[in-house]
Amino acid sequence: MGLNSRIKSLIFAGCSLISIGALAGFASSRQNVKTCEKVSINIDNEYNNYFIGDKEVRDLLTREGERKIEGLSNQFINLKNLEKRIEAHKFVKDAEVYRGLDGNIQVSVKQNRPIARIIRSDQDVYIDAEGNLLPLSDRYTARVIPITKSALIKPSDKGFFRDSLGQSYLDLLQFVERDEFWKAQLVQMHIDGSGKVFFLPQLGDHTIEFGKPVQVEEKFKKLAILYKEVLPTMGWERYKRVNVEYEDQIICE
Question: Does the pLDDT at position 156 exceed 90?
Fold first, then answer.
């Protein structure tokens, strides 16, 4: 390619960029003079959570009705500020606020997903998949596994499930949450003063002594053999105690 051709290409590219920028600026200015006539809200209920609804989102957007959005010119609507207001809600994981081509506001909300609930005299809260603590809700009660903890288990400044020790328990909870069988079968989890885990099952009259939250997958494989091959034959009420704490063995009494 000759020098003249390169210069022409650079000039063409530069002009194209200027044109695109001008069009974007023009479109933006056109949007700013439009009036928001309607606010549309979409709340993601992928996990059938109902911790926040349209009314709560609208209250966050309008500061409990003090600042109406419908009827405002778009130049007076700060979309990022609206997003921050919604994301300040404990049960909101992520929010996106944007304008449609018609100038109206579109709101998309993704909710936090609790995977367990800590129940103790001094603490009754949900835990989400990242280990964050979430308050209880008057609007909705999540069907998640309840956890009781010994008073000897003290949370750190970050919370029990956000430190290096608690991460292994969070991994265990995430494993149970992902597995449809164990999610339905395990109805309560207890952590004793030494950090060992115990489960109460939906079926059977036994306690599962799981031990420390290590080798999680291997322990559940042993339990799966018991539930699929032994208990249907021996009877679900046969044992009072099932221990999978130790490697390569399962103890039933």
Answer: no
pLDDT value, residue 172: 95
Tokens 């322990």 map to which residue? 219
CA distances from 59 to 55, 63, 66, 80, 185 (A): 6, 5, 9, 16, 39
Structural domain ending residue among the three candidates 111, 128, 143: 111
Mean local confidence (pLDDT), 9-27: 51
User: Cβ(91)–Cβ(109) under 8 Å?
Assistant: no
Q: Does residue 211 lie in a domain region?
A: yes
Which of 111, 138, 158 finishes a domain?
111
Q: Supply the range of the domain harboring residue 194.
A: 114-252
Question: Rounded to whole angstroms, how far apart are CA atoms 187 and 183?
Answer: 8
122, amino acid identity: D
Work out the burial of residue 210: count CB atoms within 10 Å of its CB; fewer than 13 is exposed, 13-18 middle, 19 or more buried: buried
- Alpha helices, DSSP H, located in 71-147: 79-87
83, 145: one domain: no
Has residue 51 got a pLDDT over 70?
A: yes
pLDDT over 90 at 180, yes or no? yes
pLDDT at site 121: 80
What is the average pLDDT value for the chain, to the nearest integer?
A: 84
Please indicate, yes or no, if residue 29 is contained in any of the structural domains.
Answer: no
Residue 183 belongs to a domain with what CATH number? 3.40.50.11690
Clarify whether residues 106 and 128 are in a common domain. Answer: no
